[in-house]
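Contributing new records

If you add data, match the layout below exactly. Sequence lines come first and carry their own label; structure lines follow with theirs. Keep one chain per record. Anything else will be rejected by the validation script.
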Amino acid sequence: MKSMSRLIAFLPLVALLVACSSQPRIDAHLAGERIDEQLDKKPMCIEVGKLPLKVFDSGAKNINDLLVSAGLFDRSSLTESYSRYHVYALSALGSPYYRDGKGLCYATLELAEVTSYTAPATSSDGRLLAHVEYTYRAKSVAPWALNEGVQQSFIRIRQVVLSRQTPIKAHATFSYTNHGWRVEDLGIHEVWGQPL
């Protein structure tokens, strides 16, 4: 009877150890696969809005004129009620890069390396989270993004182009779901703050 009471006292400890050891784990390989999957789905783009775009002619050059010089836009002029406008439309060269009715895409990204990761921990809202530090680089770059004027005007394009030699650091957040680990936030943010 004494051995039975010891066994009963020991069972909760065993159950606790089993529960703790069954907590989902994350490693560099799994994190790298998930990050690369997400990077592959998200090309880097600059927002140019819905085209064609009508802009009042103030006499000064604007960013759209730079995109004309890079060959992505065509520009025409229009006069309405004594006012002159420039109309910017997608050129044949720019057409393959225009996505979702608002953006010109200039690069695709790939994982360079997972540099560190945290053990999963429960957040204040009860979700299981893990954080992963990694670096990424441009996998492919549109020829127009190599234009010096474009890189001078769009710092983010320049950073991504340079990432082919020097990868960029990022911090991803993972959450555990019924389907396993998923990337909640890649930690890549454009200069104007729009997350990728």
